[in-house]
TrEMBL record:
Coiled coil location: none
GO MF, one annotated term: acyltransferase activity, transferring groups other than amino-acyl groups
SUPFAM superfamilies: Acyl-CoA N-acyltransferases (Nat)
Protein name: Ribosomal protein S18 acetylase RimI-like enzyme
Domain of life, per lineage: Bacteria
Residue span, N-acetyltransferase domain: 4-144
Length: 164
């Protein structure tokens, strides 16, 4: 794999993705997250390797979960994904998110993870993320099919926090 560069998605990046053979569900995600960035709600970080997107994470400027927001301000990583997995891309994305949160954010970075996602939990633990200690949050999100059509999904997640 060529070296990976992580940067916020620019309008040019989105145009490039729209012209390329990106699957409809991934393109819908890119568009949605770029729109959030344009509205000032988040940064949308992409990992690029040789002109291909190999990972993404949305850095929300406030937690997605009301119960977390009530307990204070933090920036939160959402929809983290590495493709391929296990090659260091996830770690690079998290490191880039931490740096942005340190420079522009609130000083605390969080994320929510399904308790069954043991591989991801191992990674977060190694990067010093700790359970926030207030139980699970109920997550609601849009699951997209291969045509990009969304349907609502829910699930329980534990949240973890770290000081960037
Ligand atoms: C979780 C994820 C973002 C980690 O990114 P990554 O690039 O695979 O991780 P890195 O290569 O930087 O680090 C490897 C570590 O990630 C963890 N990991 C999680 N899922 C993994 C997978 N499928 N393959 C390999 N490692 C994985 C392991 O803890 C591994 O550490 P180990 O060597 O101690 O086993 C990525 O595996 C992924 O996209 N998974 C599917 C989507 C997902 O679960 N997202 C997280 C939602 S909270």
């Amino acid at each position: 794999m060529d070296p990976v560069v992580v940067r916020p998605c620019s309008p040019d990046d989105l145009s490039r993705l729209e012209r390329s053979a990106v699957p409809a569900d991934a393109l819908a995600h890119h568009r949605e997250r770029c729109a959030m960035q344009q509205r000032g709600e988040a940064r949308y970080l992409l990992g690029w390797s040789g002109g291909t997107v190999v990972g993404r994470v949305t850095l929300l400027h406030a937690s997605k979960y009301a119960g977390v927001r009530e307990r204070g301000d933090l920036w939160e990583m959402n929809a983290l994904e590495a493709l391929p997995q296990g090659r260091g891309v996830g770690t690079l994305l998290i490191t880039a998110a931490e740096e942005l949160a340190r420079v522009d954010g609130t000083g605390v970075l969080g994320l929510a993870v399904e308790p069954s996602n043991t591989g991801a939990l191992r990674l977060y633990g190694r990067l010093s993320y700790r359970d926030w200690g207030h139980g699970m949050v109920l997550d609601e999100w849009t699951e997209r099919d291969s045509a990009g059509r969304g349907c609502a999904s829910t699930g329980r997640r534990a949240t973890t926090c770290s000081s960037p």
